[in-house]
Amino acid sequence: MCDLPYSGTQRRRTRNQIWAKLFRSVDRGGWMNGLNSMRPSDPELAELVADFPTRVHPSETPLMDEEEVARVLQLAEIAGIPVVVDGGWAVDALLGWQTREHSDLDLAINQQYLTRLLNILRRLDYQYLPRGDEWAHNFVLENGAGHQIDLHSFVRNSKGQIVGGVEYPGGSLTGQGRIAGMDVACIHPEWLVDFHLGYDFDHQDYQDVTYICNLFKLQLPAEYQEYALSLYEGNTPGTWRLPDRFNVRVPQSPWDYLAFTNILDKSYRESMSSEMQAIILALLEKYEDPQEVSLGDFHGSGLRSGVILVEDQRAIGACELVFSPDENEGDPGNQKLVIRQISLLRRAEYSSLFLALLRKTVSEGWRARVSRVEALPLDDITQPRPALPERYDLGEIGFASVFAKAGFKRLDAVPGSRWGVERSLCN
Length: 427
Description:
Layout: H1 8-29, H2 31-37, H3 43-48, H4 66-78, E1 83-86, H5 87-95, E2 104-110, H6 111-123, E3 127-129, E4 138-142, E5 148-156, E6 162-165, E7 175-179, E8 182-186, H7 189-195, H8 203-216, H9 222-232, E9 246-249, H10 254-265, H11 274-284, H12 295-300, E10 305-311, E11 314-325, E12 335-344, H13 351-367, E13 372-375, H14 400-405, E14 409-410, E15 419-422
Parallel strand pairs: 2-5, 12-13
Antiparallel strand pairs: 1-2, 3-4, 4-5, 5-6, 7-8, 9-10, 10-11, 11-12, 13-15, 14-15
Helix pairs in contact: 1-2, 5-8, 7-8
């Protein structure tokens, strides 16, 4: 998969992996070859950081202290550069006091101001720090003292709507907080909670979300309630992952397929025709293991294609997909998948379940050898909505900001655009 790097824990792991790879290349191919491999492969990013030297020996214990945060934010304010604090420092800004140490400072910034901010950071001895998931709108700088800044730039159109870069949902950049006694712009509290959803999380994330929910009187999300219950039952703090009672899969039996179509059609059929059952059984008999059946098998048999979400052997969600020729590929035989519908019968407020459906949809698409997966979600980037909705499957398709967490990107820089993820970018 190729998820967007909202999770700080995931970003740090990826960063460590890329540095290990780069230093191996230095050992094998010589210093200059290794150094060249540390420069950005993305031409847009390469141009942005052309004047920044590569941070050859990054800090093993980066620490972005309050004094350095205040210095960067004050210089940005003096220069008239609007920035919005994201990540862990946004949590502390909302609370008004520092709750823990932070390895970096996450900043959201309009792309039109990015070059000016980079000029300031270059004069502060910040250098380009390679990482595996970087691109022109999200990359990291570090200085000699081990201070790191994680930059997230977005693109606005003439109406002020975000239509590119890191697609912050409408209304998410409107929070207000305090750091080192100064007023700062930061992520809105409800959206900061939302940004913690849809991924595995650790005890640090739990504490951050709990602080925000307590202060702003927000309901603790379902995933975090489960983690809190686990702590109450005496379990050791650790990492939360989607419980094993949930499973997302391509239908693997006539019962699975019946449940799949019932969810999509809002029906309660208890049986299917003998002809339909025979088609499904014939399809499954091609494989020793029913887990080997693919979306392409269902499509080739004239059946509806998709995946189901099961909780304790009860189907509670489904995603229907349609195969279509990919007009963007030169080979007319190339196919893409279009998400027609996503529906949750239960736990529709459970962000991680909606994302589990999306991620499995994409991975099954790659297994079916399609070139891309597309959808037309509700555009909550250009049209603001309340954070933490009661249903993540609103409109039986869901929100663009959630698709972004699963690696989807806007296909056209206009409001209401289709969103997609390409197989070539996820290999």
